[in-house]
Amino acid sequence: MKNNRIVCGLFTLFLAAAPVLAAKPAGHAKPVSRPAAKASPAPRTVGLVAEDMPYDVGGALLLRWPVNPADDSGTSYRVYISSQEKGGWLQGTEFPASANKGTDIDLPFWAWDGSASEHALRLDLNGLFGDASPGTVYRVKVSVLQNGAEVAESEVKTARAYGNWFRLDRLNNLVMLIIIVIVFFLAVSHAKRKGLFIRRIAGLDAIDEAIGRATEMGKPIYYVPGIGDMTLVSTIASTFILGEVSKKVAQYDSFIKVPHYDPIVMTVCKEVVKQSYLEAGRPDSYREDINQFISQDQFSYAASIDGMITREKPAACFFMGYFMAESLLLSEVGAASGAIQIAGTDIEYQLPFFFTSCDYTLIGEELYAAGAYLSKEPMLLSALKVQDFGKLVVMLGVSIGLVLVLLGQWQHWHSLVNFVTDIFKAN
After folding, report:
1. Tens digit of pLDDT for each residue in 130-176?
2. Which of 82, 113, 186, 310 has the greatest CB tally within 10 Å of its CB?
3. 16-55 tens-digit pLDDT
4. How many Å separate Cα 341 from the centre of its chain?
5. How many angstroms from the chain centroid is the CA of residue 154?
6. Entry pTM
7. Which class for 102: exposed (0-12), middle (13-18), buried (19 or more C-beta within 10 A)?
């Protein structure tokens, strides 16, 4: 019994001393680790540069700033502009971060060195402020939006828009103009010294035959300039041909009639015919009734000429200029009267009617070249040669461009050839 009491006392003493024995000295306590606070991200900056848009008339500004690598599909930019010293901000435009890079500016490579590492935006002032005043100071800024919420804003920059004296982006036009002028004067010089070769045009060579036949038969010649006005190239070309035909008519002492649809064209042709008779040395043979106004109604005009041709039976008929549905009505009646007929127009869907009813037909540009072909004037012949030179340059440019495009697409063509080859091997 005594032993039991001793054991119980020792056990109670051990329980009372256990917390003290388990505790460690304060100097050896392990510090409690806590998570470190995250550093706040650095504020985003937009290195905006605002300046005048180069090579324009002064109605736009050019905004540039570096592309941020952190931009994603949710990032967009919003541009603000103001013409006031304080406030008055207008939203110019808003676009995603993937758009409006330096390579997107529509300027040729010799006038603009665009880079995909920067944003470049042409800001049209006339569209925002109506008619932008030259020299006005504009304030611009750019806001960065992330999923529609503004996260950053650039500093406010100022810029002026003004017109440029020289448009470097059109330097190619200046170079081409200089080349054309040089070629033209070289052609004029050569034409005066040795002449220029122009291929034979049968319809124009037959003019002398037609006028000579009319003179022998003592019958009139009809020259119809069409229903076009003086703004049309075909009508202008027709007046050139009329001048040469009238000069030959005056030399042969024959008679020509020119019925008109447009009164202004009639006035011009009167002066052309009168000058032709004067140059031929036969001003006394000129008559005021050579040029006659008929009607400004298309089919009344055609019906009146058909009646005149049927009654007078001319030996030659010329249809040169702008024609529409009346072309077959005129040429068919002339063919029935037995006249030699020479036609020319640049309206391609009227050419078949002239082909079937006329002896000779000038096609398209042959009508434009007729004046130079008949007159043999060095200036006119040189103009034809320069036009041919321009066509040659265009043809070479198109051919070279086609080759470059094919070379650029060679990888795609190679893949297509391999794909087709694999299909045939599989079969």
Report:
1. 776 777 889 999 999 988 888 888 899 999 888 888 888 889 889 98
2. 82
3. 444 444 444 444 444 445 544 444 444 566 789 999 988 8
4. 40
5. 37
6. 0.61
7. middle
